[in-house]
Amino acid sequence: MTQTLQRYDFVLVFEVTNGNPNGDPDAGNFPRLDPDTGRGLVTDVALKRRIRNYVALSRGEAPGYDIYVREGAALNRAHERAYLALGLTPEPRRLPKDEGQARALTQWMCQNFFDVRTFGAVMTTEANCGQVRGPVQLTFAQSVEPILPLEVTLTRSAVTHDSAGGTRTMGRKYIVPYGLYRAHGFISAPLANDPAKGTGFSAADLEVLWEALTQMFEHDRSAGRGEMSTRALVAFRHRSPLGDAPAHKLFRRVEIRRSGQGDGPARAFEDYSLTIDEADLPSGVSVLRLV
């Protein structure tokens, strides 16, 4: 996991059809949106959850690809594994005073947990393993156009208790008829490669990340999420570890517009056109169309 990594900036485009891509628990699970623009939102946390789930599913117990932030898992158990592996005894909420031992604990967590060396983690709980800043970061995803969520009333034929007073109960769910979402991502070479502070995120890990971003929705099906699919993944690779152009200028080269085939609301990816401006790219920058 020590192969030198380059800097990347990438654009992820995904769609939802008749589903709720990311409900807000503070709003009765209503699809998240920007109230000023009406555009839908999906949090970076929701995207990372799907990446973690895919890696756990596809890599299983492969060495180095365990998942730290698991649903229902106690984080301290993972920290205790690090102390046990290194023959150390944890002190409540304290790292070892020896800097070498403290660094060894953090490195052990990076080496064994894919999401720690990818996204970083604050591991300063009861059994303290330090904290590390991850080289891979994601933004919130935002829909290309405003969305209009629908509240759908459902009928349940079975009741919970005999005293419910009938044989049917009513329920509700929210769906987005169609939404095309765009998120941006960043991969820092120094935060991966630095021998003192880097996580060890490698080129092999990068391939796993690309795979997860491509396939994560295929194994995240549920009645509430409808049909979700990755429709585009465009990466800008830099020759310099520090980058050869600002990310925001590169992101502007990926444009998503209505294709002009009708004036009504979009209901399919084909209602849009996605173009990548590869003319006069900054020196040292190349484009990868991964999906």
Please outline what is shown here.
With 291 residues, this protein is of the alpha+beta class. It contains seven helices and 14 strands.
Percentage of residues in helical conformation = 10-25%
The coarse silhouette is: flat
> What is the H/E string?
EEEEHHHHEEEEEEHHEHEEE
Strand content: 25-35%
Whole-number total of structural domains: 1
Largest sheet: 8 strands, antiparallel
How far the N terminus sits from the C terminus, by CA atoms, comes to: 25 Å
Low-confidence stretches: none
Q: Strand tally, please?
A: 14
General description of the model:
The protein is built from seven helices and 14 strands. Helix content is 24%, strand content 30%. The protein has one domain (8-289). The radius of gyration is 22 Å and the shape is flat. The model has no long low-confidence stretch (mean pLDDT 93). Strands 1, 4, 7, 8, 9, 10, 11 and 14 form an eight-stranded antiparallel beta sheet that branches. It has a two-stranded antiparallel ribbon with strand order 2-3. Strands 5-6 form a two-stranded antiparallel sheet. With 291 residues, it is an alpha+beta fold. The longest helix has 16 residues, at 44-59.
